[in-house]
Amino acid sequence: MKKVLITVIGPTAIGKTKLAIDLATHFKTEIISSDSRQFYKEMSIGTAVPSRHELESIPHHFIQHKSIHQPYNVGDFEKDALKILENLFKKHDNVVMVGGSGLYIDAVVKGLDTFPEVDREIRTNLNSILKQQGIEVLQKQLKELDPEYYKKVDIQNPHRIIRALEICHGTGKAYSSFINKRKLPRPFSTIMIGLFAERSILYDKINKRVDSMIENGLEEEARSLHKHKHLNALQTVGYTELFNFFDGNWDLDFAISEIKKNTRRFAKRQLTWFRKNKDIVWVEPYTPINEIIEKIMLLRINLKDEAGRL
Asked: Which CATH architecture best describes the domain 3-112+182-309?
């Protein structure tokens, strides 16, 4: 029987970290983070990195293992994650992966999509537009050229937008038309557990988390990174809004309200991405852990039965 990667997914602030630790504790295994915002050692508060106690309770991988000054993309993560999984599955029948970055999760589970080569000058021109006219112009372009991808991408991330637009301009086709065309066999099976809650509950969790981040020093953390605001790693919710405050464009209260609003929008895009995956088993965040474990064990039995019929 193949080894099993138990993947915990869901929108930001829903409670993925706690569930992942509970599952890893039960199965006596380790955790891989697929949250692309938590890779960077300089960013802790604004990315909701697990606490020191949580990190010490279960071995974690891909938490603050890179600097914001080190380029690191989804292709790098796919390669590194598969290498670590190969080693972990020598010791464990189950490994837990957790995160809200759908693209990074798909890279590990299914493999990256293949895109055609396009003229490098296109990216140069798009970067010039970003610098001279701002991200809003690029957002508008993407909405017009690929409304499907626009609905699920983090539109505050210029790297993702420019990558999609260079494919649109270079091929004359939507970026989304190249997605999910290539699936690679993996030497493990995957069970996906998704956390969901009613919108009012989720939005309340998000607002409370942002308030907690501010109380715990997010403004000071962002200020220490302000001089590096041009870096791709820092083009993310929670930091860009405070950079606008530091630059004198907004007052602090408005910046905080924008963090909450943009985080809610980000959560909505995450859910849009995940809901297209019919293999996800959805549970509410307050579901007893023993019930979730029972679901996983039943799914594991089904995997075994399917393997036996092959």
From this structure: 3-Layer(aba) Sandwich (3.40)
